[in-house]
Amino acid sequence: MKCEICxxxxxxxxxxxxxxxxxxxxxxxxxLREWMKTADDGTIKCPSCGNYFRDIVSTxxxxxxxxxxxxxxxxxxxxxxxxxxxxxxxxxxxxSVKTSPSADLRERSSExxxxxxxxxxxxxxxKPAPNVRRGQPGGYWFRQHSLPELLRDDHHERDQTKESExxxxxxxxxxxxxxxxxxxxxxxxINRENIVQDMLNLYSDKSIVDSxxxxxxxxxxxMDLDGVKREAFTLFWEKxxxxxxxxxxxYIPRIxxxxxxxxxxxxxxxxxxxxxMVGVFPTLLSKTFFTALIAGKENVTDDDFLGGFLDYISCxxxxxxxxxxxECSSQQIISANSTDxxxxxxxxxxxxxxxxxxxxxxxxxxxxxxxxxxxTVMAANSLKEGLFEGISRNVWLxxxxxxxxxxxRSLQVTTDKVLSLIAINEPYAxxxxxxxxxxxxxxxxxxxxxxxxxxxxxxxxxxxxxxxxSIKVIFHSHVGNLPHVTVHACSAVVDLPSxxxxxxxxxxxxxxxxxxxxxxxxxxxx
Length: 526
What we know:
Oligomer: single chain
Strand order of the largest sheet: 12-13-15-14-6-16
Helix content: 40-55%
Strand content: 5-15%
């Protein structure tokens, strides 16, 4: 990485590397301080992106990246206000009189790509911006992905890692870099109410995976700085799972004469492209099935298949089977009641053999292999065909079972993970009232169950899995009868009121109202 003032290299652990407050362009400290001397009033533009700044920060204290454009490594430049540097797409809360969520938002003049009402899917090719620097990591991709990776302590060790040993997220970063350096981006308009058909129509053209996308929803003015894309792909997988997949807590392809296998090729295309662009991956897809698909069935053990099958069936059946397997292990016998359950359960899978303590696990493993793989192999081949198209091929090529398991583990959402992402943007300037609201906010996160936590994460970031480096909290002055919350989904920033809540119960009630109101999920420009 080079300092863009002197053009000399900046090393990963160079303590003199700094960046301006308000952007993440990196320079040598001496170079940037000399540059600052050219300012007449103490305010100067960043020599790279043009953002105004007054001070600089050393690289160890990097904050979350701002919303930047995803046009072939090109940054959409803006001049943030010193008092409110966060710009982008917002989701506002709906108050007690059910006015539009955007009604409470502070107005700011902005422009976005419009979309014609009634048009489901439109694509438009845009010319690359003039400041694309071919061959160098820059702009959006660099700030969001390359820079955090560069600053990791183990970067020098990973430089020596063989291609086959790179993690799937690392491969994704490289694929995203290639995608951004390729050709032109496409503007796409999608109807939220018809998202499944719109996305299937869009990705029926296989060339779509060769370009980055800029997404807008019909009647939802927004500038897509990744938050809108994350919402689009997350919503798509939520809606498509019951249509083309089956399961309870995890899913596998549905086998039906009414479903053409070519659909799964398109679904594989959507999965890879969405994951490469914004990190959205449908973790509801059975881990065992996906491991067999990517790493090969021969690398999936009997225990893996049994565990995947227990996840695939209902929670009740899962608990009953685990208890019965425990009986077999400890008592070497199956009770009459358990035998009756097993006969009924196994009959659903056309098993007529009477189970006993000695053969039960073998029977279950056989059923698991049949249900999770053998029955789905034709659909799996079509899905894999779509997954391996274009540059996405390198993400999955030669991936091992361990890499797939690591991918699912990294995407797993837990309360501790979400809490670790939350931070105040300016902790040194927090007031007593803001501290109380921030305490309420963290407590609210701790009260959420698994489903609610994923819903909250999607509201804030656009994805039900963790795909951002941090969730920043900022504050605005409370004006009016009711406090309101605004979310900047692209930069994962939550804008909380500085007060206005009578108690935590009041805060929780209003946050629940936001998440349960469909209007709150629509994008608007802030």
